[in-house]
Structures
1.
Amino acid sequence: MKRKLRLAYLVSHPIQYQAPLLRKISQETDIDLTVFYCSDLSVRGYHDEGFGQAVQWDVPLLDGYRHEFLPAVGNSTNLSFWRPFNYGLARRLSTGRFDALWIHGWAYWSHLLAVSKAKKLGIKVLMRGESGLHLTSQSVMKQLLKERLMRYLASKVDGFLAIGDLNRKFYLHHGVDASRIFMVPYAVDNVFFQSKAAAAKATREKLRASLDLSPGRPVILYASKMTERKQPDGLLEAYIRLSPDHRTEPQPYLLFIGDGELRQRLEARASQLKWNSIKFLGFRNQSELPMYYDLCDVFVLPSVQEPWGLVINEVMNAARAVIVSDQVGCGPDLVRHGENGFIFKAGDVDDLKRVLQDTLADPDRCTSMGEMSARIINKWSFEEDIAGLSNALGLGVVGG
């Protein structure tokens, strides 16, 4: 019998988006997966700086796959380049006789050290990160450091797992040969989100009534952290400009889900209008979100400097039209301009207003856009992830 390929996966902490994928990989007949975590902060609950509150995820993070938490010196709940200060991975890689090490991200010293340790042990290294060429807001010094870091990784890492088109171009830009780049797209648990959205249809009108939303009026939804980078204030201003006379509230509703540093300012701006069409619903956990995706007609992610935007994957599973800025990483892969939504110029309030009008002008077209979203996302799934990972593990990266 052919021996399973032994794969180690190193990541900072349990991540709600990744747990279902890790469970699926563990079910593969030819991969023996062990996950190594640097911290358990997301399991115990933690204060999320972006949301500005304590977060405890309501979906299982550790079920269904083999995992270990690496020992650390001192506090293991603060994530930074130097923290947690983990140790013991090299010994585990050696005693576990792993064939390959898959590392998620390069923003931690422990991950960079792991590259060196694995190479000394003769273990092939795969790396997956979120960077794209559109992420350019860093200082000149940080850009130079990133250039040097990527040159180092390009010389050491055997295979790069690209999450999408902009990420692939990032690797090519930094000298990685195309033969060492494998598509492992950023995906969510499509089955989970589709089933939850389908179940939500039965209670859609009840939810609408509980939010005091009149029947027949379309719903614009934002669900993310309320931070400067996410630009919820730009969405609010674009929505205000939908008013025909700047006094009458627009026909669509605008729902904000999330929390963060800008919430108070947004609520103050909205209260000045004395409209009933803008609702702030606060933080909603992972299992609650699909009912709001089902409720909306169009979802907007107006961020600047957004590596990907997995919330777009989620809402597309509810068959809804989507609008993203041209600084949202998933745009080139998931948003077909004019077909399942629109891509607008980041920070351009008038452009965002225009695409909102175009999306909602024809209810039938808006519905058709949502149906196109569902077709697109069905081909951007964990199945494609497994295929890409297997390709990386089988085409000369391991054992080559």
2.
Amino acid sequence: MMIRFNLKFAAITAAAAVFSYFLILFLSAGYFNAEIGQLTAGINQKNPKPPIATAVNEDFKLETAAGISIIPAEILRTWVSVYFRDWTQRWEFLVDSDRAGKFLSALARRLDRSPTDARLAVINERLKEIKPAIPGRELNVEKTLVSIFVALNKGNNSAVAVFEEQEPPISLDKLQALGITSRLGGGQSNFAGSPDPRIHNIKIGSIRFNGIIVAPGEEFSFNNWLDEVTASTGYQAELVIKNQKLIPEYGGGLCQVSTTLFRAALAAGLPILERHAHSLPVRYYNPQGFDATIYPGVSDFRFKNDSPGPILIQSEVTGASLSFEIFGQSDGRRVIIDGPHVYDAQPDGSMKTWLRRIITTADGNQSKNTFYSNYKSPSLFPTVRNPLE
């Protein structure tokens, strides 16, 4: 099945299990009880207050992977309440782990770092990393809470935050283990001059298709991977072709992504199962006849991985250029693209085109596919703008 390589690679050790049990024991009631485990604080009233009573009056230094983070004393005092219990004649304290946890969760959003995939290229006929993979990190809030409160209980005002390392999904070693050793093909397009919302949508959309692995024999559907196109998924309103009009909708410009991926799949020699040309010529998709429009629920772009092994799709935006690369296991097929060629061009801007792909297999067998496009005059598609613009 198709997968996106964003899995966390973390070993589950016995030590981690012990920590988890320790945390559950302490947090099961929503707070630390001072009479449980390491945080026992029973001290006779004649003796000084427990060390934590003094520690929470000073700022706390939390050593993190990004440097020292200061937890102000006024914050610490909202986490801990120290009191003398008459009926036990002991100093005790309670910890509001919910409030402390929310603070650390907010801190984690600044400290966490997603892993960065390696960028690949073929150099001297060998697949190499042109940008090495970078591990990510994720703050373990529960273990860090334990570290902080154990330190405070001892009267210390510093502790080390606990991070879990996240291995990058895409690295050269992992891909080679899957048999991905060659560049099968690539495609490029240029969106210079696009409005800002269109550029935004292209960048958001291209990220969606970066790092996808398609298993051998499996079909790829652009719409299935695209998922919902709404404001909540990060898209902005921009012009789309709909009902013989150009109207603003969320995700306008995503056809730049499907078009560029179509070009890469074509160059890789993968069977194209579904491809639709736009209704009118669009300058962002020059040369005309080399595009693939999509609209969820209406039109899709699909291809099949008929190569010997899994393929990897990588996307990249550089300036006003979008590129897709497809890597996999080569079976020796050679691809020639003839065109696109324009014919029946009319003064009103309408035109027809054809593009032919010739695939020659390693044993010399040859197959040809021709892709026809019929573009109507742009004058037939009035632009409907948002009245609030």
3.
Amino acid sequence: MGSEPLAHSSTDVVVIGGGITGLLAARRAAHAGLGVVLVEAGERLGGRLASVTLEGVTLDAGAESFATRGGHVQRLCEELGLSADVVEPRREPAWVVGPRAAYPLPATSWLGIPAYPWARDVRRVLGWSGAARAATDLLRPGRAPAADATVGSVSRDRLGTRATERLVAPVVTGVYTRDLDSLALDALAPGLRKDVGQRGLIRTARVRRAASPPGAAVRSLRGGLHRLIDAVAADAVAQGARIETQSLVSALLPTSDGWEVTTAAQRIDAQRVVVAIPPHRVDELIGRTATAVGADTSRARYVAITSLVLDAPALDATPRGTGVLAQPGLTRAKALTHASAKWEWLAQHLPAGRHVVRLSYTLSHADEEVSSFAVSDASALLGVDLDPGSVVAQSTHVWLDAAPSAPPVGLPHGLHVMGAGAGLTGLAAIAQQVSSADFV
């Protein structure tokens, strides 16, 4: 007997991927009055905005905050009726911890670049000589870095080695999971290379910092950033979008008037397709359609977030503020967030003496073991000797690394790649891309 024929339907837009990028794209197309079908391979929506429930509290298992720059996510929250639940973190500095020193990050910096190198908190980290070397950037004429200039080469040239290693490297590596010499300057922010050429590095940092909305540089939602997933999905469905989970796309082929999307259960004809999946999946799906999509699967890396719920009254004093960035050589973890110290809403949901910390790891393989290191790493980063018996609950979630990369090129008409597959990281950048893309 032959297999059953696939169900066949047609629509205006098919969105592949049910993370926040795909959901935002489906919502925008539905609001434009287009027919939309979103297909997600997994059982759940959310991607990097996943959640996990530990000891009765639902936590962010992935991204836990959004950048305020541009105001794109803030406007999204307002449109979804969530503006009253937007919260800022507590105003405590993040720390940098290394094998030989621990210090809070200077208050007036942008991605670790000291906006005022003579400030007391900068001199405390760099010393007089290091501050003086960084300040020479203000005396040098602007000169556009080379097109292939990295963050490391530009920072060492303009700020010196000490400022680069003690301030810029911990922050940038912690945010982008890449060392400075493998990260292009413009990957930090669009147009950064041009701005540095005109103003130098420190003045550019001042301008970028001043352009951010007042208040904290990041915000979240009371109850967790993962709440955006249900809110965006519900709004898209209310506007007529159809969302299907456990629907893996096996083929994407051009037709005479659009595209054909095939899953195990159906074939969908669409005028346009939005691909909102990780870079390696973009290559698998459209590698023969586009001339180059920029994903380097041979060097794929992974990111793991380990969440710990601890009975640890010693952490009540928040010994290292709201979080820690690790210098190389201290722990396996590259960063730690003291989540219950950072977010007031979370602290209110926990009994006295209980805390939540999140540790970030960069992995070579998806199945690499890290959870056994978590307590010892947290002890080293927080400067508190934590008993393994203090762990009430823990979980680890792993994703393919979504560090900035080259965007897809050579895409044919009607095919759009967005989010991580397009080399973007961060909710703010993704929300901006989706709101301005020409797929509707």
